[in-house]
Amino acid sequence: MPDVFIQNQRFYNPVDYVLQQIGGTWKAPVLWRLKSKTLRYTELQKAIPHISQKMLTKTLKELEVDKIINKQIFAKVPPHTEYCLTAKGKKIILLIEAIRNAGLELMKEEGIDYEAMIKEEKKNAEKK
């Protein structure tokens, strides 16, 4: 298989290329939150409680550079920034959904009902 160079980066195959675009700890969770709506920076921060400001900013910049998300700055008082998926980002959501579904199936095979855990967590959060 020939190596491919894109923007001075070497990719060994198409899978390597797409994993570079969506890989890492935070890209998929950010994209998942943007799959059906536009969100402000602070909304993303609240929706992903374990991500630091530094990592969220870095992740959003990488996704924007790769043309997976759009960033729109509103220079009004108070200023804010919104993020949404591009057409490329919407295609990638299909891939993330397939990976998520495979992960859920593998978890079930291990005796873990992740969706039930999420429902229980939401129920407990509502009680507080």
What does this structure look like?
The protein is an alpha+beta fold. It has one domain (27-127): Orthogonal Bundle (Arc Repressor Mutant, subunit A), CATH 1.10.10. It has helices at residues 14-22, 27-34, 41-47, 53-65, 87-109, 114-127, and strands at residues 4-6, 9-11, 39-40, 69-74, 80-85. A 3-stranded antiparallel β-sheet has the order 3-5-4. A two-stranded antiparallel ribbon has the order 1-2. The model has no long low-confidence stretch (mean pLDDT 91).
Number of helices: 6
Question: Spans with pLDDT under 50 lasting ≥5 residues?
Answer: none
Mean pLDDT: 91
Query: What portion of the residues fall into strands of 2 or more residues?
Result: 15-25%
- What is the CATH superfamily label? Winged helix-like DNA-binding domain superfamily/Winged helix DNA-binding domain
- The H-and-E topology, N to C, reads as EEHHEHHEEHH
User: Which structural class fits the helix and strand makeup?
Assistant: alpha+beta
What would CATH call the class?
Answer: Mainly Alpha
What would the principal axes of the Cα set say about the shape? flat
Could you tell me the number of beta strands? Answer: 5
Radius of gyration: 17 Å
**Could you give the order of strands across the largest sheet?**
3-5-4
Largest sheet: 3 strands, antiparallel
Helix content: 55-70%
CATH fold group:
Arc Repressor Mutant, subunit A
Q: First CA to last CA: what distance?
A: 55 Å
Q: What is the CATH architecture term?
A: Orthogonal Bundle
